[in-house]
Design a protein that fits this description.
It is built from 24 helices and 12 strands. It is α/β, with parallel strands linked by helices and 527 residues long. It folds into 3 domains: 282 residues, Rossmann fold; 56 residues; 88 residues, Arc Repressor Mutant, subunit A (Orthogonal Bundle), CATH 1.10.10.350.
């Protein structure tokens, strides 16, 4: 622990850089509230998506880095703005027409279209919490509805009424002229319709802490700003929340970056000290468009977990947070194999390299041992050539390659075998195309089959890889990658694939010879 803490002082991994900034913010001492507070925000207007998970995962990585640097206690809050009005009906929910009558009502007052919870906001909050719990995050959940209606937010809301003019001055500078005419930091909730109203405020009483406005039917109405009768517009709400909770760190997507100065100023006017911030790049779908909760484009958390374990998702989130990432299904196999490569490297690394290894951050300093003796990409290819319909079929090959392995002793490999079969059938099989070999490739593959049949030496991957290399060189393939591409396209129906010697060792020498025979006879291309 001492070696790691010493190394952490100068660790260059981005969570440590952020953590050192937080430590400087609190002056290296315990804040008056008794802990350093990390916060993440969630807008439950749609189903939780993979970017939401990424924000909590990355914030947790910073928190764990901070805890290695310092003994100051920490807390992580996940704050859901479920008091926001339902602005539009999401595309990816059942019975969307039933929601139209509830537009502009707080999400916590909108019926759950799935019929499972007391409200749509509660449904989406539960989905978020269930996933975070499954991953094992240490967090506390706060509902904006509870925060407003319980009175926990009241002191800051009263202060907002007292300092209304100062807050409005900040906001009006950022608005177009036509928007300024009707803008107020306060959004009253109609006592008649229950909707969040974007209406001009006639009067704010700083002493009574009330707002006066015309309700939807034109009735002049006065409401207290406390007790959940009024909510703040989202930008003032952001900064007010920082002030109310005394937040020390929050990260958010780059779409918020232009508003950071506004959030900070709002927080300061309301008596708070702005936290350290960290801005990350956005997640993009396969077409390069921003992932949207309401549209449901791009990968969902459930999608990733259908094809890979959660640790590989956290690994993906760690990588280069300030670089935009395309979230498509084809990133999953690579993330799985890279994650396990880092796990295997970790035990032999010194303290400095361990803190630079993503798995330290994924697992909070205690990464497990990798038992993935067969890469995920290899399992995909094995599923392809064997026609495996379930993971038990793959284990017949895995045991030959690794006799000591079993589902009980290698649970990560067992899970990956099941994921590989599922991924193969959903994504690889529909687009798989075998091509016939040209004459030079045909001669080389026939030679490879003969050499494999005659090979009496070791069947370990390196020995078999040497045979594959030798055949490619002897048949004049230059560069040699053209030889391997031919093997992949002719035998596996893909443009790229595994280290071929390892594939032969896993699939079997006799089976590979038979596979080459089928390809040369045209059987694979006919399939």
């Amino acid at each position: 622990m001492t070696d790691l803490r010493d190394a952490a002082q100068n660790a260059r991994a981005w969570p440590f850089e952020a953590a050192r900034a937080i430590l400087d913010r609190v002056g290296g001492t315990v804040p008056d509230k008794g802990y350093v507070l990390f916060e993440t925000g969630y807008g439950p207007s749609g189903l939780p998506h993979i970017g939401t998970f990424g924000e909590v995962a990355r914030t947790t990585m910073v928190r764990r880095a901070f805890e290695l640097l310092s003994d100051i206690p920490t807390r992580l809050l996940c704050f859901s703005d479920d008091m926001d009005g339902l602005r539009k009906v999401p595309d990816n929910v059942p019975n969307p027409d039933a929601l139209r009558a509830h537009l502009q009502r707080p999400l916590s007052d909108v019926p759950d279209p799935f019929g499972e919870y007391e409200s749509f906001g509660a449904h989406n909050n539960a989905r978020l919490c269930a996933f975070l719990d499954r991953f094992g995050f240490d967090y506390e959940f706060i509902s904006a509805t509870e925060f407003y209606r319980s009175g926990r937010f009241d002191p800051v809301l009263r202060r907002a009424a007292e300092r209304y003019d100062d807050l409005m001055a900040v906001m009006l500078k950022s608005l177009r002229e036509e928007r300024r005419q009707s803008y107020s930091i306060f959004l009253p909730i109609s006592p008649q319709t229950g909707r969040v109203l974007y209406v001009p405020i006639r009067h704010v009483d700083p002493v009574a802490a009330t707002v006066t406005f015309d309700d939807e039917d034109g009735t002049e109405t006065t409401l207290p700003v406390t007790g959940g009768h009024v909510k703040l517009q989202w930008k003032p709400d952001f900064g007010a929340r920082w002030a109310a909770l005394d937040v020390d760190f929050e990260m958010y997507g780059k779409e918020h970056a232009p508003n950071t100065a506004i959030y900070d100023r709002i927080c300061a006017i309301l008596g708070g000290r702005p936290p350290e911030h960290y801005t990350y790049e956005l997640f993009l779908d396969e077409a390069g468009e921003k992932i949207s909760k309401s549209r449901g484009n791009g990968l969902s958390m459930e999608d990733w977990l259908r094809y890979a374990a959660t640790d590989s998702l956290a690994y993906f989130m760690y990588q280069k947070p300030k670089t935009a990432k395309r979230m498509s299904f084809d990133v999953i196999p690579r993330a799985v194999d890279e994650y396990h490569q880092q796990l295997r490297a970790y035990p032999a690394q010194d303290a400095e390299k361990r803190l630079a290894n993503p798995v330290w951050h994924v697992h909070g300093g205690a990464p497990p041992e990798s038992r993935m003796v067969v890469p995920f990409a290899m399992l995909l290819n094995l599923a392809s050539v064997s026609g495996a319909r379930d993971k038990d079929a793959l284990w017949g090959f895995i045991r030959r390659y690794a006799p000591d392995a079993s589902p009980a002793t290698h649970p990560d490999l067992d899970a990956a075998a099941g994921f590989a079969v599922r991924y193969f059938n959903d994504f690889v099989l529909p687009g798989r195309v075998f091509r016939p070999p040209d004459e030079a490739e045909r001669a080389a593959m026939a030679d490879l089959a003969e050499r494999l049949k005659d090979h009496a030496g070791s069947h370990d991957p390196e020995a078999l890889q040497a045979i594959v290399y030798a055949v490619g060189r002897d048949h004049g393939f230059e560069p040699l990658r053209d030889w391997f591409r031919a093997l992949y396209e002719v035998l596996l129906g893909a443009s790229q694939g595994p280290r071929f010697g390892g594939f032969i060792a896993l699939y079997g020498v006799d089976e590979t010879v038979a596979l080459i025979g089928r390809a040369l006879d045209g059987g694979l291309a006919r399939d």
